[in-house]
Protein 1
Amino acid sequence: MKPEKPALGISKSSSWGDAAAFTVECSCTDPDHAVGLWIEVSTEEDIHDEIEVTFYARTTLKFWRGFRERLSDAWAILRGAESVRSHSMLLKKQAALNLSAAIVTTIEELENRG
Ligand SMILES: [Zn+2]
């Protein structure tokens, strides 16, 4: 299995300066499951060996919990209780490989720009 171009499950939305933005699709095709992926290569001299990877995902209170439980969860969060958020998505093996290749390629492209 090799990374594809254009790639299944991941598309580049924009690229500028030291950063590139991608959309990673869930293989079930529900757009609410997709995540935004932001990759930024640091240009600061003292942290030149790091990249910043940010995932933007929609999170919701668990829909299978009853309304009263969700209300109770929301109230707890408002009062400052810790809230653990997670986001799951399905990636075909090919899409996961494409995602990792996109990160590698983006680092190379952004570094070669400077
Ligand atoms: Zn999904």
Note: Residues 66 and 72 are 10 Å apart (CA to CA).
Protein 2
Amino acid sequence: MSPEPRVCWICQKRAFDRTRDAGGPQCCRECGNKVIEPFEFAWKKLHSYLTAHWADIVKLGRFDLSKAFPQDSRIGALRVHLYFVAALGTRLATEAVGLDLEPFVSSLLERRPHADVSLFVADARVDPGGLRLYDSDLHLLRNQDEEVHSALWYHLAHPVTIKVNYLKPGAPLCPPPGHPWHPVRQRKLVMLSPYRGEATRRDTLQSLRI
Ligand SMILES: [Zn+2]
């Protein structure tokens, strides 16, 4: 793994703030306070709602955003999306994978969705006493020129797992199984997705079907 970046990957100016919670998006103190904090607040709010109703949500296979964000589910969904755009961007910057992060930075600063990042909400299926908080490694798929075509990262906050997936437009890949949740395709109902599974190459999938 490459060393952590010494400057904040969002503003590209100030030093990294090492006091921030390692589980959340890391950046400089100012970007943390001004850019990320409102997104982090929305995720905590959604997580509280999901945790309180998780057994029923798993039975139904979906949840209603307007219950978690009664005042404005559209803004709530956008902020949760941006929180995880920041989380995935942090991992991509930290591991210096060679992906252009400008679209991540501009969506955070302009508070608009990243077109190529979707979330999948899954049941963590952790036994009592098992892991309660877990951040996965970054799963990358590259083409023969080493260009990143897909990046997937999981955040488990028991009992909920959020899978954050970047998919390069036009890449010959099938997205992870399940129901991508993206603020542009605005729906109040968010469907749960399987815990396992990541993007697969179309040719791999075809050969598996033979
Ligand atoms: Zn910064």
Note: The mean pLDDT is 87.
Protein 3
Amino acid sequence: MAYQALYRKWRPLTFDDVVGQRHVTETIKNEVKNNAVGHAFLFCGSRGTGKTSTARIFSRAINCENPQGGNPCNKCPTCRGILDGSIMDITEIDAASNSGVDNIRSLREEAGYTAAITKYKVYIIDEVHALSAGAFNALLKLLEEPPEHVKFVLATTEAHKVMDTISSRCQRFDFKRITAEDIYDRLEYICRAEGIDAEERALRMIASAADGSMRDALSCLDPCVAATPWGPLPLAGGPWLRLWKRLSRPCGICWCCVLPAG
Ligand SMILES: Nc1ncnc2c1ncn2[C@@H]1O[C@H](COP(=O)(O)OP(=O)(O)OP(=O)(O)O)[C@@H](O)[C@H]1O
Ligand SMILES: [Mg+2]
Ligand SMILES: [Zn+2]
């Protein structure tokens, strides 16, 4: 099977898997449990903190045939269909490359049709701050009179660029930067599951260099464990890790790549 980057392989699949965002996940889980789910959400926060992952979990949770305390089961035909992409009722739109008013107009038209298989259609609009003024207005109309069977999750790293008229029609959730301690725990868990032999201080170094982003931490771990010409190198802390990273694929973001080796 083709190699899959660790950060993709380890995308959280339930609300309980999402690290460091309990203020978001517990609230949404309760809404799902009580069958009181809002029609539009705005997920704000810096990169790699779990916005897209949570939006995808949400899309399964509200459509799951056998939800587990607000979490999706990830086993029923609906969950599986959404996970493998064979159910087309969940749409992800990258607003940065579909920023025009026509994109939102066609979305509006499409949203009018009921879902083919699932109970709810879900539109996940990533980088929503990148929409043009016209597109924002078209989206506003849609959020004002949403069809019953449609839910929206808007995500952004730049909340201040989202018009107040949009955010006031959404339930807003602010994703926090993940603490180094939480990142370390997750790295350790993943290393154990992957059979990666990692020293604690090496993982702590990556966790603090990631600056609150779990994706950055996992992207940084990846080259550290890739095979080298002299065989796979166990994660050694300090100078070893720095030297090895410079010889292989520096991620360019963590301080072992930025500081001189030695
Ligand atoms: N809170 C988290 N708990 C566990 N893993 C996480 C978390 N946040 C991010 N990750 C890891 O990082 C990857 C990317 O996360 P995700 O796409 O959800 O981030 P995002 O907030 O949408 O980032 P961006 O703003 O760049 O779109 C996930 O597949 C997962 O491996
Ligand atoms: Mg995202
Ligand atoms: Zn399910």
Note: Residues 217 and 243 are 18 Å apart (CA to CA).
